[in-house]
Amino acid sequence: MRKVIVSMNITLNGFMASADGALDWHFPFWDGEMSACISQQLDTADTILLGRRSYQVMADYWPCAARDPLANPTDASIARRMNSYRKIVFSNTLEQASWQNTRIMGGDIGNKILALKQQPGADMIIFGSGSIVQSFMRQGLIDEYMLWVHPVILQEGMPLFKDIRYNTNLQLLQSKAFSTGVVILYYKTRLRVVKSSV
Questions:
Q1: What are the Cα distances from residue 67, in Å, to 30, 149, 194?
Q2: pLDDT tens digits, 52-94
Q3: From CA 105, how far away is CA 108, in angstroms rounded?
Q4: Whole-model pTM?
Q5: Are strands 157-159 and 15-18 parallel, antiparallel or unpaired?
Q6: Which single residue of 20, 23, 26, 38 has CA 20 to 30 Å from 159?
Q7: What is the CATH number of the domain that holds 124?
Q8: CB–CB of 126/6 below 8 Å?
Q9: How far is residue 124's CA from residue 31's CA, in Å, rounded to a whole number?
Q10: Maximum separation of any 2 CA atoms in the chain, in Å
Q11: Residue 85 lies in a domain
């Protein structure tokens, strides 16, 4: 069965964005080593899952990045795959999608994702898209987390783990440290634990 994998940049204190939604805190840490890691992750997938806001940011960036004559081979390869892979954007307000190979999906997300998991194909990756990640968490739809923990502590921000309804046990699959101080923690979802009210 296909897996849903979350790939998310977070601060040491668990924020996925600053209070105003900015991501500039993680840009100084990005380097070629991390690009190579993203490239390896894309090798295992064929579908990218996005919320509306993340979709619009990426749809503005990746088509232009693919035409950048100064891009190194790894970044050029990532751009080509981001453009060619199937994208599913979850939105009830977006009316049309200009980024190639994009499908807009609304309504009952849970059942639609369960159906997609049953279809043949490679894994599905969620990049960013905090509201979609949180919705998927609540519905038990996430199979693995790839958390890019940055050596940054923000005073305020948007927490990744918000409004959690169940305790969830995770299994650490592996970890990887970069020279920039960023550490990736790869977790597999093992068991959702419902706490008794008595």
A1: 21, 30, 49
A2: 888 998 999 999 888 888 888 888 889 999 999 999 999 888 8
A3: 9
A4: 0.88
A5: antiparallel
A6: 38
A7: 3.40.430.10
A8: yes
A9: 24
A10: 63
A11: yes
